[in-house]
Amino acid sequence: MLSLEQVKQSLERAGQAHVLQFWPELSGLERDAFLQDLSQLDLQRLREHCEGAARAAAAPPGSLDRHIEPVPPESIGSVRRSGSKTLTEWEHEGLLQISQNRVGVLLLAGGQGTRLGVQYPKGMYNVRLPSSKTLYQIQAERIHKIQQLADRKYGSKSTVPWYIMTSEFTLAPTEKFFKENHYFGMEPSNIVMFEQRMIPAVTFDGKVILQGKGKLAMAPDGNGGLYQALVDNKVLEDMKKRGVEYLHVYCVDNILVKMADPVFIGFCVSKGADCGAKVVEKACAAEPVGVVCRVRGVSQVVEYSEIQPETAELRGPGGGLVYSAGNICNHFFTRAFLQDVAE
Ligand SMILES: CC(=O)N[C@H]1[C@@H](OP(=O)(O)OP(=O)(O)OC[C@H]2O[C@@H](n3ccc(=O)[nH]c3=O)[C@H](O)[C@@H]2O)O[C@H](CO)[C@@H](O)[C@@H]1O
Question: Where is the segment annotated Disordered (predicted)?
């Protein structure tokens, strides 16, 4: 732990000295705990984050749009436009990989569910189905089912491990919920929960916010915190040990999610892709979903808040939207790709 003097100096250098404004009012115990938290702050990294966010916010509207282009047709596979032979080939490839224990699923469940307005992890939400099943139970049953389908086709005894990224807010209640529900019939060792990092919440001008006189307001570092969390928690090592080469990543609030969807997995594997995104055609230009596209030649998601309405409304020769690949936060990654990103 750093001394108060050291912490003071680095806070001053980083323009964050205000966080110590209530120091004289803190008890001895509170001071120790606060100093401990402050010693662990990576102020340099925080500054880089804030500067990056400020730059993005200050960029003139439309600056992304000038460099945007659709994903090339050869990288796209469409369920709607492909014949049943092609779809069956992709499905068989996906099931084959599952039967060989080479596929895992990863749930992004570190968000706080603020928009849903619940005080507990979203996966515990009972969506009022007649069965009263929660999102977690529905997902567990889908893992059982896909294993069963692969086993039936290839005579295997497959396992699709379930990786669950949580945060400081969601780990303990999620663990408790799974335990109380007997892991929904799954082998507990095949459910790997891990925590993403927390970062300080800041104001628009990059000042760290206090939650209390001796406590920083912290928040999970976004779903892009996944890559760091995979390393911090040795998840890539776990995948390697199990022989998992492909990961299907999805978000918690998608009740229709086809976990380890064999068609999607099979398509990505047969393309030799190192990452992929499953998309749904946008219903209308203004639909508030991100679009998968290319910016300066690099494939990425451009959020609906980033794209200009004129770009979103562009239509191709057939009359369809040029940017219609709606992101539903369903991603495919090879372990090798994730390892590469991590390094
Ligand atoms: C960045 C991103 O993916 N955006 C997509 C996401 O938006 P959306 O606004 O839903 O993205 P969020 O970041 O809120 O949440 C997506 C998922 O990430 C998880 N989460 C979030 C924050 C965090 O720190 N840790 C964490 O695990 C949430 O629990 C959730 O499962 O879904 C939309 C609809 O499907 C897409 O159109 C958006 O393009």
Answer: 56-81
